[in-house]
Amino acid sequence: MTYPSFVVGIAGGTGAGKTTVSRLITENVSDSVTRIPLDNYYRDLSHLDLAEREQVNYDHPEAFEWDLLREHLETLLSGGSVEMPQYDFEIHNRKAEAITVEPTDVIVVEGILALYDEAINDMLDLRLYVETDADVRILRRIERDVVQRGRDLEGVIDQYLSTVKPMHEQFIEPTKKHADLIIPEGANRMAINLLEEKLQNEVHGEGGRAWEREDFEREIGDRTARNTPDPE
Ligand SMILES: Nc1ncnc2c1ncn2[C@@H]1O[C@H](COP(=O)(O)OP(=O)(O)O)[C@@H](O)[C@H]1O
Ligand SMILES: Nc1ccn([C@@H]2O[C@H](COP(=O)(O)O)[C@@H](O)[C@H]2O)c(=O)n1
User: Fold this and answer.
1) Which residue's CA is minimally distant from atom 10 of ligand 1?
2) In which residue ranges is the amino acid composition biased (Basic and acidic residues) (predicted)?
């Protein structure tokens, strides 16, 4: 693999097409890609019962365990592996088992608030915001939540009006200003092709950021030495 990883952040409203973009821009680039869904970093809510977990506002920044995500990204960027939590939307909680994630050529952090946290933004090499009209997004969400996430129509509509929409306006949409690029409608062919080319170039291209392992370790060693005070 190349060191350090090239890290892409993909933000945007629910149903905008973030997961689809993430898959399309990476599928032909490298075997060595890690997708980090922000959903996996929803806080552990095991102390609440199911009825209480159903009432949580999952679109507020407080719903996420930012410290853990920062720590995991830092570890992956310095060549270590992490135990990434997995999320279960049907029970509104983390699954019992985490999965081991190794550092890879490309890391994609994808989720509604992927461009929200300042420290995480600093770790991203490319920041994308997927912009899709709210009416299209809610229609996609209704279909997905009912078919894949075990929800009923009335619940999806209530949640959308009480938290999803207001939080989108207050917290998610404003992160667009941190984006390097805004992708209209998600899976738009020209944007996908350009982004795929960019990733190919970063990972395999001449003058890209790919370092051999020894160069990487020397650089990390040099940085550590620079940050370590001389002994008296
Ligand atoms: N450009 C597009 N045109 C049509 N359907 C799309 C497009 N992008 C995504 N979808 C569909 O919309 C739904 C939500 O997309 P997804 O990528 O999961 O969104 P997000 O991750 O932003 O919530 C999925 O069923 C997906 O297949
Ligand atoms: N228990 C949960 C946790 C999250 N959500 C909703 O998921 C949305 C984010 O996922 P996308 O794939 O749509 O980006 C977010 O808007 C939360 O409302 C949920 O419904 N239940």
Assistant:
1) 17
2) 206-225
Of 20, 26, 58, 129, the residue with max ligand 1 atoms within 8 A of its CB, to mutate for a pocket test, comes to: 20
Q: Which residues are annotated as a binding site?
A: 12-19
DSSP string of 32-99, one letter each residue = -EEEEEGGGGBPP-TTS-HHHHTTS-TTSGGGB-HHHHHHHHHHHHTT--EEE--EETTTTEE-S--E
- In angstroms, the CA 93 to CA 152 distance is 18
The string of pLDDT tens digits covering residues 51-93 is: 999 999 999 999 999 999 999 999 999 999 999 999 999 999 9
Q: Which domains does the chain have, with CATH numbers?
A: 6-213 (3.40.50.300)
Q: Quick check: bond before 229 cis, omega within 30?
A: no
**Residue 29 near residue 199 (C-beta atoms within 8 A):** yes
> Does ligand 2 have an atom closer than 6 angstroms to the CB of 35?
no
pLDDT > 60? residue 206: no
Alpha helices in the chain (DSSP H): 18-26, 50-53, 66-77, 118-123, 134-147, 153-159, 165-167, 189-204, 213-227
Mean pLDDT of 166-184: 97
Cβ(89) to ligand 2 under 6 A? yes
Q: What is the pLDDT of residues 100-126, one digit of tens each?
A: 999 999 999 999 999 999 999 999 999
Look-up: residue for tokens 């370790």? 217
pTM confidence score:
0.90
